[in-house]
Inverse folding.
């Protein structure tokens, strides 16, 4: 029932509001915010450092300091066909301060003379090698400890002159006390 003049007593109906424009605006803002956040993060993220060459400082390992001639026991072995060569060389080494403990013939050897020493006797072998021109050092476990053998081969040309021996000793002493390596690390 209706009262005249008052119209419908029911509350006035409002038209449906459209929610779509608000939803779209919120979605656009959310997408812009997410894009901005990922963009900012990508721009300011810690970028991986460029790989730098690793500088490894190696301190040179010193070779053993050559022993004094008076502390070196020598066995002189003649590996050539020249008779009496081992005795001649033994006499010269004795004059230079070495203690010759054995003189004899060795196997026939081709090539340069070899200074043979036992493991741990490198200082003794180096001291003798300084006196023999063109000598090659050889470490053998079968060699008697404390005795260095001079195996004279067919390439033997003689002992080094005193000046050559002194120069060889100076080189060996310098190698026994090398300068420390200078290392710098690249800036980070």
């Amino acid at each position: 029932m209706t009262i005249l003049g008052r119209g419908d007593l029911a509350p006035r109906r409002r038209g449906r509001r459209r929610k779509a424009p608000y939803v779209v605006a919120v979605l656009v803002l959310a997408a812009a915010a997410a894009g901005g956040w990922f963009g900012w993060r990508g721009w300011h993220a810690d970028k991986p450092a460029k790989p730098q060459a690793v500088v490894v400082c190696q301190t040179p390992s010193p070779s053993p300091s050559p022993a004094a001639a008076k502390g070196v026991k020598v066995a002189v072995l003649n590996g050539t066909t020249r008779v009496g060569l081992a005795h001649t060389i033994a006499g010269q080494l004795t004059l230079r301060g070495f203690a010759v403990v054995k003189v004899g013939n060795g196997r026939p050897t081709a090539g340069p003379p070899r200074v043979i020493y036992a493991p741990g006797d490198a200082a003794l072998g180096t001291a003798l090698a300084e006196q023999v021109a063109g000598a090659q050092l050889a470490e053998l476990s079968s060699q008697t400890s404390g005795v260095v053998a001079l195996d004279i081969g067919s390439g033997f040309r003689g002992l080094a002159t005193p000046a050559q021996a002194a120069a060889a000793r100076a080189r060996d002493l310098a190698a026994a006390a090398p300068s420390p390596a200078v290392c710098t690390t690249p800036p980070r």
The longest strand covers residues 99-105. The domain at 69-176 is CATH 3.30.70.2390 (Alpha-Beta Plaits).
